[in-house]
Design goal:
Radius of gyration: 14 Å
Mean pLDDT: 93
Helix content: 10-25%
Bound molecules: FE2/S2 (inorganic) cluster
Strand content: 15-25%
Largest sheet: 4 strands, mixed
CATH class: Alpha Beta
Order of helices and strands: EHEEEH
CATH architecture: 3-Layer(aba) Sandwich
Number of helices: 2
Number of strands: 4
Structural class: alpha+beta
């Protein structure tokens, strides 16, 4: 069996709408992880890339959040529309998507990127 090249941890945490930090999967549908799983399967890399459901990754203000290990690439504001290019560009071609990348200084800061834009 080949080794895994990537593990995607996709935050599927759900909180009430009044929680001050928000959450990554408000409707609890798991649709982002499902989209990753389908895309990995479509590109036939699902044998070496795992799309794992994660609890809160503590980057709630930047979510929906996905982290890719062992590369430690943190993406924020991820939607199902981003899944194809994350798989094709980042997973299959080692390309960082700057528009989704959470800057290191923002990790664990509890600051939203959106409020500053
Ligand atoms: S709820 Fe997704 S990072 Fe906290």
């Amino acid at each position: 069996m080949p080794l895994f090249t990537h593990h995607l941890f996709i935050c599927g945490n759900q909180r009430s709408g009044r929680h001050p930090r928000g959450c990554c999967d408000p409707d609890g549908s798991g649709k982002l992880r499902a989209a990753f799983k389908a895309c990995l399967n479509r590109h036939q890399v699902d044998g070496v890339v795992r799309a794992n459901n994660a609890g809160c990754l503590d980057q709630c203000e930047l979510g929906p959040t996905v982290v890719i290990y062992p590369q430690a690439i943190w993406y924020g504001g991820v939607t199902t529309d981003d899944v194809e290019r994350i798989v094709v560009k980042t997973i299959m071609n080692n390309e960082i998507l700057e528009d989704l990348l959470i800057p290191t200084e923002k990790l664990n800061s509890r600051q939203s990127l959106r409020k500053e834009q």
